[in-house]
Design goal:
Largest sheet: 4 strands, parallel
Shape: globular
């Protein structure tokens, strides 16, 4: 890594308008000394990003104690330590994939005439403050730039794929509020704290901003471009790509199966597999993936699409992806046969990896992983079907056990096949991926149930013959509400509900604050997944798994900070990509 330096930039400029607030060293030399102390600590300990909040605070306390720094500097020091952890990663991300976020309070309020709209301040280049200097140089380098107080725009830009890293200048209060969102997405970020909180009489160590802006590295970024990887995976499911890996379709059954594979879907499982392989094999190119990995990705999608065929039959669903389900279009016998064919294709694809040089021991391990996952899923689905035949109240732990056995195995199989393809899958990694998958699987179902509650209309777990996390949560909350208990009793009887009954049930769930309880459970699942990620011994895999938590659970939230309480959608940020 190296940093460029514009010789015209002052090396020691710190444009303060007042002394730093309590907790930030008053002398610039002491702030630099603390920053370097944090950097040496990170290098000595070999810390890799992302660090969870508790992990970050624990290291901060130890680092301060090592250097006899006062405990009151902990908030400021934690930001410096986080910067040190992310610095090498951010240095490898091109300038035109970075966002420079500046606060409006750095402007010269006495002379500034720039407009402030829903998207922040539109600098008119008057030269009356450092914002103009920062933006001009950032524009030259190719940065996306924003002058705004809040993270809503930032998270929207990250979610859209326009930026992959953030260099942000803000007050300590705002940086602490933003940290959980950056952590959840494993977004590389360098934060340069303002020297005073609030929006008046503040300042910043401006040379720290210049240094962060110029950071670069000759090596490719360690952060994988998940968007590019998803686009590449999607290309493998067009008819011509399926023919390349599976051969020409032989008869009507294969043609129906290929059409089903090519239909829309989120394709999380093949994406997880390839992402795990890419991280563990230290490959950064989305378009340079070997045929064996593509076969394995196709295999896990075959398993998934087969399970959907069978689920649709078992649940009596008539539509999927906005089209008729296979059994609705072709009849139950044909649909069952196509589902069975796809399962066979999945195992054939795994076995075929041995013909292309993958060690036979690895292929055998992959077949075992897929078989155990298949078995666990079927047992969970069997309990679900048995409940539908003999409906009764289920407590939350029983519902979650059924849910995790139905939803977690596909995630775990995908991750473990990817790790095996990369030559990794020891007992410790196996346990981490299993715990991570169980937490993600439950979170995925809870989020799906919440969607049913928020967007009624059409089949869902509330009105269909299957256990619901929301009903189990409602049962807990209805202990002192006999009217709610009566409504829930009707739902537990597993009979089709009329429109009026379904509306009444939703009203009952809202009265019991089931949505809030479900979001608490969702947060617990994410915390469990984060805890599992923290134990991942593979540095490249850790940020990947962390970022995918938010993406899989569809839980990218927005927030505001400082004096801006709006949460607008991403607007006309300056994009030079």
């Amino acid at each position: 890594m190296h940093e460029q330096r514009d010789p015209s930039r002052p090396a020691e400029a710190s444009r303060n308008t007042a002394l730093p607030q309590s907790g930030i060293p008053a002398e610039r030399a002491d702030r630099v000394r603390l920053r370097e102390h944090m950097r040496r600590y990170v290098e000595t300990r070999g810390l890799s990003p992302p660090l969870g909040l508790n992990e970050l605070l624990g290291h901060t306390r130890r680092c301060l104690a090592d250097g006899d720094w006062p405990a009151e500097t902990a908030r400021y020091a934690a930001i410096l330590l986080s910067n040190a952890v992310w610095e090498d990663t951010l240095a490898g991300i091109p300038f035109n994939r970075r966002l420079l976020l500046l606060p409006q309070c750095l402007r010269n309020q006495q002379i500034c005439t720039a407009a402030i709209d829903a998207y922040g301040l539109t600098c008119d280049g008057c030269g009356g403050c450092m914002i103009d200097e920062f933006l001009a140089e950032a524009d030259r380098l190719g940065y996306v730039t924003l002058v705004a107080e809040g993270s809503a725009l930032v998270m929207s830009l990250i979610a859209s794929g326009q930026v992959e890293a953030v260099i942000g200048v803000s007050c300590l209060d705002a940086l602490e509020q933003v940290f959980p969102y950056m952590e959840a997405g494993a977004v590389p970020g360098l934060a340069i704290p303002l020297l005073r909180d609030g929006c008046e009489q503040t300042g910043v160590d401006s040379d720290w901003v210049w240094r962060a802006m110029y950071l670069s590295a000759d090596a490719p970024a360690h952060r994988r471009n998940v968007g590019a990887l998803r686009a590449e995976v999607d290309r493998w499911f067009v008819p011509s790509a399926l023919t390349e890996l599976l051969g020409p379709p032989d008869g009507v059954t294969e043609r129906i199966g290929r059409d089903w594979l090519a239909r829309a879907g989120k394709r999380w499982r093949p994406l997880l597999l390839v992402a795990a392989w890419q991280a563990l094999s230290d490959s950064a190119e989305a378009d340079d993936i070997p045929a064996n990995v593509r076969r394995l990705a196709l295999a896990v999608e075959c398993f998934h699409k087969a399970s959907l065929v069978h689920d649709d039959i078992e649940d009596g669903d008539a539509t999927r992806y906005g089209r008729r389900t296979l059994h609705a279009a072709h009849g139950v016998p044909v649909a069952l046969n196509v589902g069975d064919l796809l399962i066979g294709e999945g195992y054939r694809l795994i076995a075929d990896c041995g013909r292309d040089g993958l060690p036979h021991a690895s292929v055998a391990a992959m077949l075992s992983v897929a078989a155990m996952g298949h078995r666990t899923l079927c047992l969970g689905q069997g309990d679900d079907l048995d409940w539908a035949r003999h409906p009764h109240r289920l407590d939350l732990s029983t519902v979650l056990d059924i849910v995790q056995r139905k939803t977690a195995p596909p995630f775990e199989v995908a991750l473990r096949l990817g790790s095996l393809a990369a030559g990794a899958d020891g007992p410790e990694l196996h346990d981490v991926l299993g715990e991570y998958s169980r937490a993600i699987g439950i979170a995925y179902q809870v989020r799906d149930d919440l969607h049913d509650l928020e967007a009624p209309g059409g089949p869902d777990d509330l009105t269909a013959r299957r256990p619901s996390v929301l009903l189990a949560l409602a049962d807990r909350a209805a202990a002192t509400d006999p009217f709610a208990a009566a409504d829930l009793q009707v739902a537990w009887q597993c009979q089709p509900l009329s429109g009026a009954q379904a509306d009444r049930l939703r009203q009952t769930l809202r009265r019991l604050n089931v949505e809030g309880l479900a979001r608490d459970l969702l947060d617990d699942c994410k915390r469990q997944a984060v805890a599992a990620v923290g134990r991942a011994g593979e540095p490249a895999l850790k940020p990947l798994l962390h970022r995918l938590i938010g993406k899989i659970v569809y839980d990218v939230e927005t927030m505001t900070c400082c004096t801006d309480r709006r949460a607008p959608n991403a607007g006309p940020a300056r994009d030079h990509s």
